[in-house]
Design a protein that fits this description.
The complex is a heterotrimer.
Chain A: H1 2-27, H2 45-52, H3 54-86, H4 90-105, H5 108-122, H6 128-153, H7 158-164, H8 169-198, H9 201-206, H10 214-225, H11 230-260
Chain B: H1 13-34, H2 45-52, H3 54-86, H4 93-101, H5 108-121, H6 130-156, H7 159-167, H8 172-183, H9 185-201, H10 204-209, H11 217-226, H12 230-250, H13 257-262
Helix pairs in contact in B: 1-12, 2-12, 3-4, 3-6, 3-9, 5-6, 6-9, 7-8, 11-12
Chain C: E1 7-18, E2 21-32, E3 36-40, H1 47-55, E4 62-67, E5 70-71, E6 82-85, H2 97-107, E7 109-115, E8 121-127, H3 130-143, H4 159-171, E9 177-181, H5 189-206, E10 209-214, H6 217-223, E11 226-231, E12 234-239, H7 241-246, H8 251-256, E13 261-269, E14 272-275, E15 278-281, E16 291-296, E17 302-304, E18 311-320, E19 325-331, E20 334-340, E21 349-353, E22 360-363, E23 368-375, E24 381-383, E25 386-388, E26 399-401, E27 407-409, E28 414-415, E29 421-427, E30 431-434, E31 442-451, E32 456-462, E33 467-472, E34 481-486, E35 492-495, E36 503-504
The chains are: A mainly alpha, B mainly alpha, C alpha+beta.
Amino acid sequence: MVKKIFAKSYVALILCLMYAPIFVLIAFSFTTSTLIGDWSGFSLELYTSLFKNKEIMEALKNTVLIALSSAVVSTILGTLGAIGIFYCKKKVRRTFEFIGQIPILNPEIVTALSLTILFVFLGIKFNFITLMIGHIILTIPFVVLSITPKLKQMDSNVYEAALDLGAKPSTALRKVVIPEIIPGILSGFILAVTLSLDDYIITAFTRNNSFQTISTYVYGVTAKKGALPPTLRALTTIIFIVTLVLLILLNLKGKKKEVRR
Amino acid sequence: MSKIKFTRKMLSIPYAVFMILFVVIPLLLVVFYAFTDAEGNFSLGNVVTFFSNSTNLNTFVISILIGVATTALCLLIGYPVAMILAKKEYKFGGVFVMLFVMPMWINFVLRTAATRDLLFWLGISGGEQPYSATMIGMVYNYLPFVILPLYTTMLKMDRSLIEASMDLGCNKVQTFVKTIIPMTMPGIVSAASMVFMPTMSSYVISDVMGERQISLIGNTIQTYFDKSLWNMGSFIALVMMIIILITSFMTRNVEKQEDARGSLW
Amino acid sequence: MAKKDDIIISIQNVSKEFDDVLVVDDFNLYIKKGEFVTFLGPSGCGKTTTLRMIAGFEMPTSGKILLNGEDITNLPPYKRPVNTVFQRYALFPHLDVYENVAFGLKLKKIKATVTDKKGNVKEIERKLTREEIDEKVRKALRIVDLEELEWRDISTLSGGQQQRIAIARAIVNEPEILLLDEPLGALDLKMRKEMQLELKEMHRKLGITFIYVTHDQEEALTMSDTIVIMKDGMIQQIGTPEDIYNEPENAFVADFIGESNIYEGTMVGDKKIRFLNHVFDCVDEFPIHEKVDVVLRPEDIKLAPVNQGMVNGKLTSKVFKGVHYEYVMMVGRSEVVIQDTRNLDINCEASISVVPFDIHIMKKEFVSNMYDAYIDKNNKVVISEEPFECDVTQLIPGTVLDEDGYLVDKDGKRYDLTDADVKVEVGLKDIEIADDEEEGNITGEIVSIIYKGDHYQVIVRTEEDEDFVVDTEYTWNELDRVSVKIAKEKIKMTLKQEAKNYVKD
């Protein structure tokens, strides 16, 4: 019994520590003091100034834009790639599984540097496209990784069964294979968005310097000047709440599916 | 009329082209740049510069030490958490794991800055104690990456093996050392590799937490990048890749890494 | 030979290789309309691959497949009037029962004649209407007895129900041939027996051709009009269940179908054979002195008190099997398995008798091992890419080995045999098998074991796909990894070319 209580309180303690910085930040987003720690009375001023801050709003817009667009491309390319490679001969499959592992195993900074060198070598100016490529390389291996297990789980004969019943290969893919792996495609997409939203290093290397995302903006203002500008406390609160709502929605949906089964 | 017959394999062509163009070729370029000088002539100058520059070597050693220390701390803190959550009688294990993962959804630079502000309030200033602040920031950031793979391996672990071990006369400590640890080894390896490489190479956390007092390999590469010294930057990147190659070769027989890694999401 | 019109499918000289491994070897078969044909054989014998070539999932490496006289060898599966019931059903999990069964119908186009406004009669292709599809699906579900499950999710169905849906999904398209790939493999025994009878009944009602793949000999015997027994990609025997049971063509078939006692015997006269130390009368004709395999079915052997039968022996064990007892009698060193309904005492002398008709005599499959090999520079013979110690002097009579490893004849002529191609013959009893993979020259996997009364005939297959057939007294298990050892003096070799080609100048 004592052991159980000890175990539970250990988990609770670690969890508290994990959330401490976020909750403190959220608490102090309702006051205007420049530093965390002194409370200068309740106020929603940070929120109004956040929405008025053009720089932050621009960075937020850019972050979402690059995350969504790179995730869409990454998911399409990755889904087709995962399916195609799954049906290749062992040698080809092994080779591309290995190549797919490279961006995962390599530290981001190596991936970032190697891409930079390629663009420099080809004389390409850094722009939105180079940034897109960087984010796709960052996310595509994870898209493939979340789809391949679904392909493995799939009864290897369902595609053949569709052909057998008169479906052309393209119809069989559309009507049988894709519906089968759709959960993998969705989780791959979500994963791609998450990774892209969170990225700093690849963004820093492959972007045009005038293009700010939340990551580069926050790094720019904190790594040199120190404390987080107060308006960003309000931003953190908003991100936290949005994430929480999304997670709850996703979980509820998953639960419903399970109940149906 | 010869029409090319459609096969499923062809779907992989765009992906394959993309990966070769933006993964394989860039890496070959890195190797090429690492052994050439600014004019493109073959040169071992980068090797010499790297190994004769004591600042570079210092940075290198410090990076590895910080990486090892963070990995060890994360495993020490995370292993018991994963074990407790994976216990059968813990009905809400999954929910708790979710809770541990959730902070990861907040932009990590933002999260790190928040940690720094909190520490500053508590009297630990990154400017004065850069190493402890950096370590705290890194453990905080990478703990979820340790808990998740460990948790999934432990869930998959065949519980009857623990009973078998007890049945065959092992006490609890012996069971833990001789049965549970070896069985969760794939999870440990995958967790360690997910923490070690980023911690030793990323410079964001150390910059934000340690107020740029600590220079890690990442910083060095970035400095060369800023100065457009591609050859030297490439050589350091190559060194890092060799380290990865060695570590992944060493851990290869322990693994089924991707199992644990894949289930992270 | 059947009349040409009766033949629905004819498979001609079909071979299939996967990565240089021959899986189906020169397969020839024709199947009549409405026949129930079963491909029977152990796993890896090529039966499923053959079925998949008929379905169109695999293309033959060589050979032709004709359907109603038309070449369909390279036709993709979706253009063949053939449907398949898969081993694990391969139902579409994201569709419900109705949608699964209707899948093929929704894609189907039929020819129809319509009269347009001007009164012209035109032939067009159209899809089936919803009502037509509805009707066909209902009918198919009625045939498999599952009308009430239409809107259920696939995952909520039992294995048996999924099986029926898979059948309905195939037959709803009215194929000319229904292919069934071990369809009952995943069901439990009782369910399997029920489904066997139902499938048979379905075959009778539908009147279409069934090609059925299984490794279960009982299933094959129960259901088929014709059984095709396969092993290692080759047809061993084609025949009715009765033919195959009563007249197995070789020891493999006899061992695979039903229980059998297999012995090695010698023809000692016209329709007279000697085995179990006794000369029996038989009905098969073989040349005198020929070594043959003999099959006795346990139920064909009659037990009698000692000295009242043909051969005496000692009953050593008895096992109750429900309908009968199974006895083992030792005759000398050979075991005889006998089925008898009487409960007799064991550990006593008894005798057996067999009528000539029940003694099945087969040509021996293996008399000795033959290999194409060559001599390496160390004067070893290389079989299946592994060197074996051997006596090379036998290749050129009257020679001896000199210090440099050349053969020298009495005239002093020297021969260099490096890379010389040779034919190697090794007797079945001259090969030894060892558990320790290090002990012998070459390792392989045991792919077949046949018990022949007093010894086992074991086939060890190496990674290079070379077989070593070994007669051994010791017990081995299938799939054991073992090593093979051949004593130096047991390797008999002959040169493929004349000796003078190897003279060293």
